[in-house]
Amino acid sequence: MKLRKGPRLSVNNERCELFGTCQWEAPGLFELERNGRLRYRSRLTEEDWDPAVAAARSCPMQAIQIKGISDE
User: Fold this and answer.
1) DSSP class of 11
2) How far is CA 30 from CA 4, 9, 70, in A?
3) What tens digit of pLDDT does each residue of 3-60 get?
4) Which of 5, 29, 35, 65 is deepest in the core (most CB within 10 A)?
Protein backbone atom coordinates (compact mmCIF):
# COMPACT_ATOMS: atom_id res chain seq x y z
CA MET A 1 0.00 0.00 0.00
CA LYS A 2 1.41 3.38 -0.99
CA LEU A 3 0.78 6.49 1.10
CA ARG A 4 -0.34 9.54 -0.83
CA LYS A 5 0.68 12.99 0.18
CA GLY A 6 -1.25 13.96 3.27
CA PRO A 7 -2.67 10.76 4.79
CA ARG A 8 -4.90 11.68 7.69
CA LEU A 9 -7.21 10.39 10.38
CA SER A 10 -10.84 11.27 10.71
CA VAL A 11 -13.12 10.43 13.63
CA ASN A 12 -16.90 10.42 13.29
CA ASN A 13 -17.90 12.06 16.57
CA GLU A 14 -21.50 10.89 16.19
CA ARG A 15 -20.33 7.25 16.25
CA CYS A 16 -17.53 7.59 18.81
CA GLU A 17 -18.55 6.33 22.27
CA LEU A 18 -15.21 7.21 23.94
CA PHE A 19 -14.23 3.62 24.79
CA GLY A 20 -10.55 4.58 24.49
CA THR A 21 -9.35 1.59 22.48
CA CYS A 22 -7.80 4.00 19.97
CA GLN A 23 -5.67 5.56 22.71
CA TRP A 24 -4.55 2.12 23.82
CA GLU A 25 -3.57 1.14 20.25
CA ALA A 26 -2.04 4.50 19.25
CA PRO A 27 -1.24 6.67 22.29
CA GLY A 28 0.82 9.03 20.13
CA LEU A 29 -2.20 9.79 17.96
CA PHE A 30 -5.17 9.69 20.34
CA GLU A 31 -5.78 11.05 23.81
CA LEU A 32 -8.96 10.69 25.84
CA GLU A 33 -8.99 13.76 28.06
CA ARG A 34 -10.30 13.93 31.61
CA ASN A 35 -13.20 16.09 30.45
CA GLY A 36 -14.40 13.21 28.24
CA ARG A 37 -13.24 14.65 24.93
CA LEU A 38 -11.19 12.74 22.40
CA ARG A 39 -8.22 14.60 20.95
CA TYR A 40 -6.32 13.20 18.01
CA ARG A 41 -3.64 14.18 15.56
CA SER A 42 -5.13 14.05 12.09
CA ARG A 43 -1.97 14.20 9.96
CA LEU A 44 -0.12 10.90 9.70
CA THR A 45 3.53 10.14 9.11
CA GLU A 46 4.78 6.77 7.90
CA GLU A 47 5.68 5.89 11.50
CA ASP A 48 2.06 6.52 12.50
CA TRP A 49 0.66 4.15 9.88
CA ASP A 50 0.65 0.84 11.79
CA PRO A 51 -0.74 2.31 15.05
CA ALA A 52 -3.40 4.24 13.09
CA VAL A 53 -4.54 1.10 11.28
CA ALA A 54 -4.61 -0.83 14.56
CA ALA A 55 -6.70 1.90 16.19
CA ALA A 56 -9.16 2.00 13.28
CA ARG A 57 -9.53 -1.79 13.27
CA SER A 58 -10.02 -2.01 17.03
CA CYS A 59 -12.64 0.74 17.31
CA PRO A 60 -15.85 -1.04 18.38
CA MET A 61 -17.96 1.73 16.86
CA GLN A 62 -15.97 1.89 13.59
CA ALA A 63 -15.69 5.65 14.08
CA ILE A 64 -12.11 6.02 12.79
CA GLN A 65 -11.29 6.43 9.12
CA ILE A 66 -7.93 6.79 7.43
CA LYS A 67 -8.09 8.97 4.33
CA GLY A 68 -5.64 9.92 1.63
CA ILE A 69 -4.23 6.47 0.85
CA SER A 70 -3.85 4.46 -2.33
CA ASP A 71 -3.56 0.70 -2.97
CA GLU A 72 -1.15 1.26 -5.84
Assistant:
1) E
2) 22, 10, 23
3) 456 789 999 999 999 999 999 999 999 999 999 899 999 999 989 999 999 999 999 9
4) 29
CA distance linking residue 40 with residue 43, whole number of Å: 9
Asked if the model's pLDDT at residue 2 lies above 60, the reply is no
**Backbone torsions φ then ψ of 59, nearest 5 degrees:** -65, 115
Are 65 and 72 in contact, with CB atoms under 8 Å apart?
Answer: no
Confidence class of residue 72 from pLDDT cuts 50, 70 and 90? very low
**Phi, psi torsion values for 13, nearest 5 degrees:** -65, -20
CB 70 within 8 A of CB 11: no
User: Cα separation of 2 and 31, whole Å?
Assistant: 27
